[in-house]
Write a structure and sequence with these properties.
The chain is mainly alpha-helical. The protein contains 6 helices and 3 strands; from the N terminus they run H-E-H-H-E-E-H-H-H.
């Protein structure tokens, strides 16, 4: 999966939230001062070319929609981070967070609970 630039990722975040949108709808999502329509139009054309976005034509305007889900993109992006920064090891990635002094006891307990639940599900599937 291709990586997105910061600008492309921002447009995709708005489009994922909107699900279907015209150019003006996407531009209106940006905080003031908003980028020019032409700037966002260029970003969207690149996203179409990269096959992240497609459109339906309504007269002279296009209604854009994502071709890839937010979850799919971030799952791929996340795997690349684990691969590039943690030698592909999910346990090294998890260990990184346990060393983070900003995590509260509650957050660590929640992480432990999610891991325990996943272990239980995997055990059930293998029985």
């Amino acid at each position: 999966m291709k990586d997105l630039t910061k600008a492309e990722e921002q447009v995709m975040k708005y489009l994922w939230n909107l699900e279907h949108a015209f150019l003006k709808d996407i531009v209106e999502q940006f905080p003031e001062p908003r980028p020019a329509y032409t700037t966002i139009s260029t970003v969207i054309r690149v996203l179409v070319k990269k096959k992240f976005v497609h459109f339906r034509t309504h007269g002279k305007v296009h209604e854009y929609y994502p071709l890839i889900s937010k979850d799919s993109y971030f799952k791929g992006h996340f795997k690349a981070v684990v691969r590039d920064f943690f030698s592909g090891s999910m346990s090294k990635f998890a260990l990184f967070f346990t060393k983070d002094e900003d995590l509260s006891l509650t957050e660590l307990e929640q992480m432990k609970l999610m891991i325990d639940e996943k272990i239980d599900r995997l055990k059930e599937e293998n029985d």
